[in-house]
Structure formats: structure tokens, C-alpha cells
Amino acid sequence: xxxxxxxxxxxxxxxxxxxxxxxxxxxxxxxxxxxxxxxxxxxxxxxxxxxxxxxxxxxxxxxxxxxxxxxxxxxxxxxxxxxxxxxxxxxxxxxxxxxxxxxxxxxxxxxxxxxxxxxxxxxxxxxxxxxxxxxxxxxxxxxxxxxxxxxxxxxxxxxxxxxxxxxxxxxxxxxxxxxxxxxxxxxxxxxxxxxxxxxxxxxxxxxxxxxxxxxxxxxxxxxxxxxxxxxxxx
Length: 234
What we know:
There is one protein chain. Helix content is 41%, strand content 13%. With 234 residues, the protein is of the alpha/beta class. It has 7 helices and 7 strands, in the order E-H-E-H-E-H-E-H-E-H-E-H-E-H. Helix 5 (172-185) packs across helix 6 (198-211). It has a single domain, classed as TIM Barrel (Alpha-Beta Barrel), CATH 3.20.20.220. Strand 3 (81-86), helix 3 (92-105) and strand 4 (109-113) form a beta-alpha-beta unit. A 7-stranded parallel beta sheet has the order 1-2-3-4-5-6-7, with helices on one face.
């Protein structure tokens, strides 16, 4: 399975980039939810998206259901899955095993994220990775080893970008420096967090390009179907 087509080559920044269509899927928590999800997946498949991303719960809480969903997507649909992976809650050795399992499944696209810190304030797992760029470097090392052994294809690695300041960041300029560090670590593209004003995305693009970020930055758009969701994202 090849990486998502929109990231196989970087577009000429002087030209208009092609529009990418993707969907984000949340692994189901019950048989009824799974049935409903798969009805939706069949409908979404007809729109021929560039890829679909599959979320990964905090500290890998839904790892098994996420892998099962990815497996079915690869076996039963024409969709290209992009697997979310967070470094919070796992050691580098555990993450390397998870990456290997995903690649064995047929995944060729991974969204590398730090992940949310535990809400209970629990200390991080001893020896765990602290930043998304550390996870990117680990993915590339696993890729290099597997390529030497199995002649495996390139893994497409995506990261998060922030149109508005990250809650733990001192400034938007710092966020761009972090994005640049992710690019240097081997990221192929970025997907933004949800934003509500187009100028926030435009300003991010302007700041990033001036700083030397050249990878595609895809806007993350979420349909707002309830006031509760708007409040939570605001």
C-alpha cells in the first residue's frame, strides 16, 4: 500500500497546491457503534478521499480497536489509512514494536503526535519520548532497519501544526520553530488543529514559510454538529 498520494511529492510552493480530501475515523467502542461506523465508511468511500486517518486514544487506550479498524480498511476497502501514533505512555521499545505491527498490517502512513499528558497528573513512563520529533526519528529508524531487511517502501509521516498557539507554548513563533524541528526530523506533511477563522490558517502558512517550513500544511476542518462540540473546541 503506497503512502497517501498528496504527500508523495511536495508541491511547488509558487503554484496552487491540489485540494486534499480526508476523513478522521474514531475506533468504535461497541458492536453497535462499529456497525454504524462501517455504514458511514462505505458512504465515505464513494467520495474517493486521499486518505482516512484513524485516531489513537490517550496512552494507546484504544490500540487494539484502532489496529482492527485499520486492518479492515486495508482488506475490505480502497481507502488509504493514516494511523495516529502518540509517544505518551509508551517506552521507545514499545513504540518500535507498535510501529512494526502497523507496518506488518500494511500501513504506510503514520501521524506522529506527542499526545495529551495524563489528566491525573501521573508522571511520564520512565524512558519515554517527550516530543513528536523524537517519535518521528524513531519511526525513521524502524523504517531504515525494515527497508534493509525487507526492501519495504517509504513511510509517509505526518505531524500536527497549530494555527493558534499551542496551550503549552510561549508563542506562535515557538510553535513554528517546533514545526520546523519536526520537518528536520523527517516529517513529510502537517495537518493543522481545528481553527475557526481562515486568517489563522493563512497566518500560520505565512509564518511557517518565512521560517523555512516547506512541507505541505493541510487545514484540519471539523463539521460542527453541536454547541457542546463548539464549546469544547473553542
